[in-house]
Amino acid sequence: LFISGQPHRKEDEMKYLRIIAALILVCGLASCGSGEKASSTAPNDKVAKVSADGLTRSDMSKWRLPTDPYREADTILISRARTAYFRYCMKSKGYTYQGRPEPPEGQAERYVNSAGRRLFDEKIASEVGYHVGIVPGWNVYQYSHDTIEKYKTDPGYRDAKNSCFNKLMDQYPVLKSYEEKSETGNALLASIGGAEQGLGDPKVKKLAATWKQCMKPLGLSDLPDNPMLMPGPQLSQKIGLNSGADAPQSAIAASPGTVSEYERKIAVADAKCRISSGWQQAYYDADWNSADAYVKKNQKELSARLGQIKQVEATCREIVKKYS
Fold first, then answer.
1. End-to-end CA distance of the chain
2. Whose CA, among 12, 69, 78, 308, lies 20 to 30 Å from 31?
3. 185: Cα separation from own chain's centroid
4. What percent of the chain has pLDDT over 90?
5. Model-level pTM greater than 0.85?
């Protein structure tokens, strides 16, 4: 998003940036759908379902859903455009703007999918356990930390950034309109999120009990009834996991291989049980079906949303071309 990110108090500012960093890592910095028609075959050449609008192909490994193309514009493209413009604008004010880092080639969806959903499978569990995965070479927390320090040592930098942000919005009204809708909350986006109702499916609820039975040999004292609630409070405390806005990076995110062997062992067993119990497949199928039904029912509104997204992305490409 084109958020200016300029709270007034330093305490608010630090908390704000930590929240932003957490959201970036949890929600991802990847594109949210190109709007191109999807192929009817999966990457492994097995037949896959295609959404009612023809834009999305099913893929449980990346948790693709029919609602994905309508969520947000390509956030990496937005970041790239913002960086290009800010570098140009802030240079005239005597500042150097580094910009938010981009993911290494092919790594944007290593831990989070293109719609911002965290992924969880045996491989991810073996790398980062239950922590949010940090892609090597793409640590957004470091960017956030550097930004905080820059604000502390140079208040003029913050003012210059605010000024450039306002100029960008005034120069490109389509971005301003998109930003304002994002800030105030969009009813359509809320309804999109509400359309993905896989967890409420009776079959999914029933298979959660099978998953729990599979997990019992691990001897966890606070094993939840729903796999999505893993890890429970006691396990979270034991492995040092804390999703609070003021938590240090190590309590939220981790690079591959840096979490404890114990956490990885539990997480891998969890990932295996989700598959062997049938829960994960049932959950994905139910999520897909409910999202696809929503897309069928709301094509008029969704088409308008997709048009706005395409307009924003075209504008961002224009900015990158002009100011890079």
1. 19
2. 12
3. 17
4. 52
5. no
